[in-house]
Amino acid sequence: MTLEQVFYLTQSIAGIAILASLIFVGFEVRHNSREARAQTEQHIASSWFVMATLISQHPAAFYAGLKSKDGLFSDLLENDRLTFISIIFALFKHYENIFRQFESGHIDEDTWTTWSTHVRIYFHSTWRSILVEDARGSVHALVPPVS
Questions:
Q1: What are the CA-CA distances from residue 44 to residues 25, 37, 53, 84 (Å)?
Q2: CA 35, CA 28: separation in Å to the nearest integer?
Q3: In this structure, is residue 36 part of a structural domain?
Q4: Could you tell me which of 3, 14, 33, 43 has the fewest CB atoms within 10 Å of its CB?
Q5: Whole-structure pTM over 0.90, yes or no?
Q6: Higher pLDDT pick, 121 / 147
Q7: DSSP structure class, residue 128
Q8: Nearest 5 degrees, angle CA 60-CA 69-CA 66?
């Protein structure tokens, strides 16, 4: 075997090794993407459990806020209003986070569709008209002005 043949043989082996390593990297990226999506979905579920705990710890304040007809919730007791506004703020930040995860491709469309249906339940309550003051869905309208 001549030196030139050895050179071509080693170059062929190197090319095959590079191709094999690229295939391996592709599998690793795919695996890591699946793992990141699973972690994101787990975080969403954990976040919802925290929200459910907040609501279940303060059911009277949450219910009073939901049935309130006053846009500033002035018909609620001071503590109930603060509790309700805090829960609603956290709830909508939870939904905003889910949307941002969907937008960035960390969760799939089926997961987003499920959660977006859930958020529409809240938007269809009596206080939906005061929740969205700007395009980003800021809930600053819930906080009564300081007098």
A1: 28, 11, 14, 21
A2: 10
A3: no
A4: 3
A5: no
A6: 121
A7: G
A8: 35
Domain range for residue 104? 44-142
Q: Which amino acid is at 127?
A: W
Query: Which tens digits make up the pLDDT trace of 30-44?
Result: 888 888 888 888 888
Classify residue 125: in a domain, yes or no. yes
With 50 as the cut, is the pLDDT of residue 4 above it? yes
Q: Are 115 and 98 in contact (CB under 8 A)?
A: yes
Q: Which residues of 108-126 are buried (b: 16+ CB within 10 A; e: fewer)?
A: eeebeeebeeebeeeeeee
* Ramachandran bin of 62, using left for φ above 0, alpha for ψ from -120 to 50, beta for the remaining angles: alpha
Number of domains in the chain: 1
2 occurs within a structural domain? no
Q: What is the DSSP string of 20-69?
A: HHHHHHHHHHHHHHHHHHHHHHHHHHHHHHHHHHHHHHSHHHHHHHHH--
Banded model confidence at residue 17, pLDDT cuts 50, 70, 90: very high
Q: What is the mean pLDDT of residues 86-93?
A: 89
